[in-house]
Amino acid sequence: MRFYVNIDHVATVRQARRTDEPDPVRAAVLAELGGCDGITVHLREDRRHISDRDVRLLMETARTGINLELATAPDILGLACELAPMQATLVPERREEVTTEGGLALGSAEVRTAMRDALGRLADAGVRTSLFIDPDEDAIEASAELGADAVELHTGEYALADMEGRPAQLDRLVSAARAGRAAGLAVHAGHGLTYENVVPVAAVGEIEELNIGHSIVSRAVLVGLERAVREMKEIIRRAPGMMSAEGWLPPIGF
Ligand code: PXP
């Protein structure tokens, strides 16, 4: 099982102040040191978190592979073909949504045409392709027909289901994963996976890659906050001794 860390929400915190911290490029290094197999970023049309600069730098600095999530906006598709990350996952995108709300609507001829074109261009650029779909057989069939290398099964409904509804949503994922493998597709999964709900999905043998973001960034804020406060407290405590006639130096080691 490959484990990809989605670092979009590190950039969300940065964009809350439109400053330069926290830098998702630095976060990617730490995620890799933590043992992830790849870094996932979603370059959205409205650039609400990840920026073109982030993707360009990640392409140069990541030691693992980059999975670039994108819709079919011409400039973003063009950038994906230019940079040729290891993998591109095509997703639906609506400006007003808080996060990707559902899989691609492959029942629509218009969406299928856009996907066929995007998949062809990405494949010509040497990029492995994946389609983000709801865990349904129709979507699997359409993805295989379109010639994607992989599908990413949307785990959002599984994640949102209550304890009573969860087994049915898990069955749905398992059936879709089996159908995907039978159709010759690699099967990935992601969205809404947390420390509490990941186990049954990670145990599905047909799923070979998980993409997890929000829950990891959320946990990082909490497990890192105590240390961050201690470090600021220490700087404030030492501040009088750090001043001199020439001014002051930023503390080393923080
Ligand atoms: N997979 C896809 C296609 C996504 O769009 C997202 C969210 O950007 C994820 C996985 C990760 O979801 P989460 O942040 O809820 O773990």
Describe the model:
- With 254 residues, this protein is α/β, with parallel strands linked by helices.
- It contains ten helices and ten strands.
- The strands form two sheets. An eight-stranded parallel barrel has the order 1-2-3-4-5-6-7-8, surrounded by seven helices. A two-stranded antiparallel sheet has the order 9-10.
- Helix 4 (74-83) links the parallel strand 3 (65-70) and strand 4.
- The longest helix has 29 residues, at 214-242.
- The chain is globular, with a radius of gyration of 20 Å.
- The mean pLDDT is 95.
- Pyridoxine-5'-phosphate (PXP) binds next to strand 8 and helix 10.
- Residues 6, 8, 42, 69, 89, 91, 99-100, 132, 152, 190-193, 211-215 line the site of pyridoxine-5'-phosphate (PXP).
